[in-house]
Amino acid sequence: MIALDLGVFHRSAHEVSVREAAVWSALWVGLALAFNALLYQYLKTSLPARPELAGLDTQLLAETTALEFLTGYLVEKALAIDNIFVFVAVFSYFAIPLRYQHKVLFYGILGALVFRALFISLGGVLMQHQWIVVIFGLLLMATGIKILALPEKPLDPGNNPLIRLLRRLVPATSTLHGDRFWVRVDGRLWVTPLFVALVFIEISDIIFAIDSVPAIFALTNEPFIVFTSNIFAILGLRAMFFMLAGAVQSFVFLKYGLGVILVFVGLKMVWLNEAFDGKFPIAWSLAIITSILAVSILVSIAYTRTRRGLDRAPATATLAYPQTAVETAPPARR
């Protein structure tokens, strides 16, 4: 699907419209749900034939596994929305045109798949130890509380230590050179702002993986479910970015919903699983996480509409003459 996406549908750089992004988002979500349905059907028919599972409720096992995938996919999808805030800030900071953003995100997601595979493989080993589970649970709770309690700091890629190190090691051009990541000038290799933006996106994904991978392991201890739910959520991230980038500022309370989810998942790892004989019901987790997301999104939409109505009211009342919009060029970046 990735090869088809870039090699056929996006061979040439172009601006991705909201309509095109919505179609691709629906396709990726549909593929994830189809995979979940096929997984359920496979387990439903194959588990009863396994002698080592004799006497167990294989139907319940199949249903539980399918719910674990769906819950993990939903959590990853929700946390991925937080990535969009970072993508918007990075593209704005480096002045990346719309027609080149798809390429940056494509290679950024390829790198994310590799890093997620490494994190999940490592997590599959570490999560066998209960004290590691508790540490990750406390880390998730601390991250959630930080989101809820502390004001969000503005993103400044230029002051990131790794980005500054990259610019010291490899000279960077001040302007773009089409969709190229690096160019040769007088026999010397230079990286373009497109490559620097890609590096920052990869760094941010590694940071997000520190939260998201333990969060999925809190829902299921099966690495296959963790990996596939991560993959399907990441694959749809690029299309979701182009669909939501313009409206991302409208979801003002979404980050608080994500903070509550991280606190809940961390609490699940530290205490709730033990309180429920080793496994908090996955159906309850799905219902709680879905409710938190729904409330945060609905409250955000209602608040944004109310604020826009209040902002427009004085202007509508005092407007005496028709206004015309004047388009001005953005200031040049150094």
Q: In a few lines, what is going on in this structure?
A:
It is built from 11 helices and 2 strands. It has 334 residues and is mainly α.
Give the topology:
Layout: H1 2-9, H2 18-46, H3 58-93, H4 98-126, H5 130-149, H6 161-169, E1 182-185, E2 188-191, H7 193-217, H8 223-235, H9 237-244, H10 254-275, H11 282-318
Antiparallel strand pairs: 1-2
Structure in words:
With 334 residues, this protein is an all-alpha fold. Helices cover 71% and strands 2% of the residues. It has 11 helices and 2 strands. The chain has helices at residues 2-9, 18-46, 58-93, 98-126, 130-149, 161-169, 193-217, 223-235, 237-244, 254-275, 282-318, and strands spanning 182-185, 188-191. Strands 1-2 form a two-stranded antiparallel ribbon. The longest helix has 37 residues, at 282-318. The radius of gyration is 23 Å and the shape is globular. The model is unreliable at 316-334 (pLDDT under 50).
Kindly, what is the distance between the CA atoms of the first and last residues, rounded to a whole number of angstroms? 38 Å
Shape: globular
Number of helices: 11
Mean pLDDT: 79
SS class: mainly alpha
> SSE string, helix = H, strand = E?
HHHHHHEEHHHHH
Low-confidence stretches: 316-334
Radius of gyration: 23 Å
- Helix proportion of residues, in percent? over 70%
Strand residues, percent: under 5%
Q: What about the largest sheet? A: 2 strands, antiparallel
Count the E strands: 2
Order of neighbouring strands in the sheet with most strands: 1-2
Oligomer: single chain
